[in-house]
Design goal:
Helix content: 10-25%
Shape: globular
Number of strands: 20
Number of helices: 6
Structural class: alpha+beta
Strand order of the largest sheet: 2-1-8-7-3
Strand content: 25-35%
Radius of gyration: 19 Å
Distance between the termini: 30 Å
Bound molecules: 4'-deoxy-4'-aminopyridoxal-5'-phosphate
């Protein structure tokens, strides 16, 4: 067995740094109740290089982690500051000095499901940003999934629980089987919802459009931040409203946003090319501004960054 997980030898678990292969829980644990977060820390200055790392939107991710725990009835045994110290210790132990992904995992215990293990794995990732990065402009063919997004009245997508990702997995498998790169969900009413691991935004007639929280989406930290800066800093008005499938086909630009997917343009939906220019000009502007914030270049949003 490999001693590393995504190339990361150490993680933090239940109060101490441990070797990743020793971060074990019992097979008897009620895994359907597990929750997690997906967070990124970027090198400051030039986001590809080695250097000082800052976490983006730590507080917002912690807010959501605690909300997920409340929805599933789990007790968080550590404070946010203790988790931040745990994260720092894990990063130090691995010696990471460039972009890292952080995925706090909360596992309920078999003997008392309100009690949990807390594990913080960290590993390196390569960013698609900024828009000049060749990865950013890769062709991405998406399909509308035949699977509907889980809905708030049955399985709340607002909690970031592992179980929700079985739904994403089905859509991903279908997309790959059909020769697409990934999928977009409709919600249980038939309106556009989100991607399998990111929120969705469109640009139509110079306005940004994105589905509301009531369209069975995860309350995305990135989406909220984009909705904050796009109108203010880029002068593009933003509407949060229901979007139909046909309207998505008619968009000038479509892109995904999320911690993992960052800002990622989509080339076509159901083999219908999106707009006339790929990647679209608004998508590139959003990606570049967002990457400057992540790299600590935009002073105004420096408060969103936590040095680790
Ligand atoms: N929707 C889903 C299903 C996701 O998994 C994610 C990634 N966490 C997002 C949206 C985007 O959320 P965030 O911007 O908070 O990463």
């Amino acid at each position: 067995m490999s001693a590393a997980f995504h190339g990361s030898k150490y993680c933090w678990m239940d109060g101490e740094v441990v070797e990743t292969e020793r971060a074990l829980v019992s097979a008897m644990e009620p895994i359907y109740l597990g929750i997690f977060e997906g967070i990124k820390a970027y090198t400051q200055g030039n986001i590809g290089d080695e250097g000082k790392l800052s976490v983006f939107s730590w507080d917002h991710h912690m807010d959501r982690l605690w909300r997920s725990a409340a929805i599933d009835g789990l007790k968080m045994p550590y404070s946010r500051d203790e988790l931040l110290d745990g994260l720092k210790a894990a990063v130090r132990a691995n010696g990471f000095k460039s972009n890292i992904y952080i995925q706090p995992r909360i596992w309920p215990k078999a003997d008392d499901p309100e009690e949990v293990h807390v594990v913080i794995p960290v590993w390196k990732f390569s960013t698609f940003l900024p828009a000049s990065n060749p990865e950013f402009s890769k062709q991405r063919r998406f399909m509308i999934s035949s699977w509907r997004r889980i809905s708030s009245d049955a399985m709340p997508p607002q909690a970031k629980s592992w179980a929700n990702y079985a739904n994403s997995h089905l859509a991903e498998r279908e997309a790959k089987r059909c020769g697409y790169d990934s999928a977009i969900f409709l919600d249980n009413r038939g309106f556009v919802s989100e991607g399998t691991g990111a929120c969705l935004m469109g640009v139509r007639d110079g306005r940004l459009i994105t589905p509301p929280v009531t369209a069975s989406i995860l309350e995305s930290v990135t989406r909220n931040f984009l909705l904050e800066f796009i109108p203010k800093e880029l002068g593009i008005p933003a509407d949060v409203r229901d979007i139909t499938r046909a309207e998505l086909y008619a968009c000038d630009e479509v892109f995904l946003c999320g911690t993992g997917w960052e800002v990622t343009p989509i080339t076509s939906v159901d083999d219908i090319a999106v707009g006339k220019e790929y990647p679209g000009p608004a998508t590139k502007k959003v990606a570049d501004y967002y990457s400057e914030v992540l790299a600590g270049i935009v002073e105004k949003y420096g408060g969103r960054l936590t040095t680790i």
